[in-house]
Amino acid sequence: MNRRRKLYDGKAKTLYEGPEPGTLIQHFKDDATAFNGKRHEIFDGKGVLNNRISEFIFTRLNQLGIPTHFLRRLNMREQLIREVEIIPLEVVVRNVAAGSIVKRLGLESGTRLPRSIIEFYYKDDQLGDPMVSEEHITAFGWATPQELDDIMTLAVRVNDFLTGLFAGVGIQLVDFKIECGRQYEGDMMRIVVADEISPDSCRLWDIKTSQKLDKDVFREQIGNLVEAYREVAQRLGILTETDNALTTGPRLVKSD
Length: 256
Ligand code: TMP
Hints:
Blueprint: E1 6-9, E2 13-17, E3 23-28, E4 31-34, E5 39-42, H1 46-63, E6 70-73, E7 78-82, E8 85-86, E9 89-96, H2 100-105, E10 112-122, E11 131-132, H3 134-139, H4 145-167, E12 171-185, E13 188-194, E14 202-206, H5 216-219, H6 225-235, H7 241-246
Helix pairs in contact: 1-6
The structure holds thymidine-5'-phosphate (TMP).
């Protein structure tokens, strides 16, 4: 059995020590949580889908020269990543009003925002990830002004890429969240995109019908989460018919 050292057990992913120094293994679980962990359910196949979708997106970001922690997918649920020092911020980019901004500012859900808006949330479960400003971030030293500039540049580039990617398959990118980390190489440090990008961390609406194809299906209990995620994967051309069978029903013991 698996005797790898577990380094971090999160709500939807587990991190293990990697095969070489400076690497980690990121394992995608089937768990979904919402409202800061108050609601928790397990969806058979979600981890497999998010592993594949996130691999697809991070591979393309790397190809475009947008640096990420992603190295390669290892098997159905795991990927090899570079070890980075996670910056304790959730960086949200919004194109269309939905979710918390609707409540906070009294907007109508679905309204296009005057321009893309970047928001920061301090990653702290006990505090419920409060929204913070650039002033808080630099004053408390969570990131330097230069790092914050790099983070915002990355966020805008990721938004441009994802908006086009999803529009090409009939999906509107409403908003998304990324996390960033510091990658050290010798004396050099650079900010890279870390964590995952998947329907857990994006709002994705069908362009024609506005049907939700993301974690809001679970948050709002309005349908079948795995079906929605599979639809995203299929539109992106990730899942073949065989793969499709693997995310449901009996599991193969072999991993790939
Ligand atoms: P919000 O509207 O709830 O603030 O969410 C904005 C975006 O961030 C949305 O795409 C969902 C994503 N998100 C996460 O990935 N993790 C979280 O914990 C929260 C609250 C939102």
